Amino acid sequence: MKEFKCPNCGAKLKSMQVNKTFKGREIIECEFCLSQFELELKAENQTRDNSAAKASKKMMQDIKNKVAESNLEKLEREYEEELRIAEEEERAKQLAIEEQAKLNTQVQLIIGGFIGIILFLLIVF
């Protein structure tokens, strides 16, 4: 047995107090204030409220999914940017190493040239 609350006076009514049925709707009459209300309307309102709650939950889930996708895309862009920067830094290091190797070779050639000239001068004189 279900209990219902009178929308007019707030009294608790039991489902067996259904007085009339009109076009499939149960009409309850409050024994305290004599107001009548339809039982089906409460069920319809609850169904409508449940539908609205489900729609609201779905909207919230859609928003969460979009935010998650947006955050994921943002993280992917940040990762790609960091990867690009790391690659550029690696290329710059490699170029610096190559330049240093060229300079070392040139210095060795110059030193070798001076040593050759000094030896030549020592031998000739």
Main attributes of the structure:
single chain, 125 residues, alpha+beta, three-stranded antiparallel β-sheet, two-stranded antiparallel ribbon, 1 helix
What does this structure look like?
- This protein has one helix spanning 39-124, and strands at 3-5, 12-14, 18-22, 25-29, 36-38.
- The protein is α+β, with helices and mostly antiparallel strands.
- The chain has one domain (3-124).
- The longest helix is centred in the middle third of the chain and has 86 residues, at 39-124.
Summarize the structure.
This protein is an alpha+beta fold. It has one helix at residues 39-124; strands at 3-5, 12-14, 18-22, 25-29, 36-38.
**Terminal CA distance:** 129 Å
Q: How many structural domains can be distinguished in the coordinates?
A: 1
Shape: rod-shaped
Whole-number mean pLDDT? 81
Biggest sheet details: 3 strands, antiparallel
Order of helices and strands: EEEEEH
Estimated radius of gyration: 45 Å
- Tell me the β content: 15-25%
Q: Write out the strand line-up for the largest beta sheet, numbering strands in chain order.
A: 3-4-5
- How many β-strands, per DSSP? 5
> Low-confidence spans: pLDDT under 50, at least 5 residues?
none
Strand-pairing-aware structural class:
alpha+beta
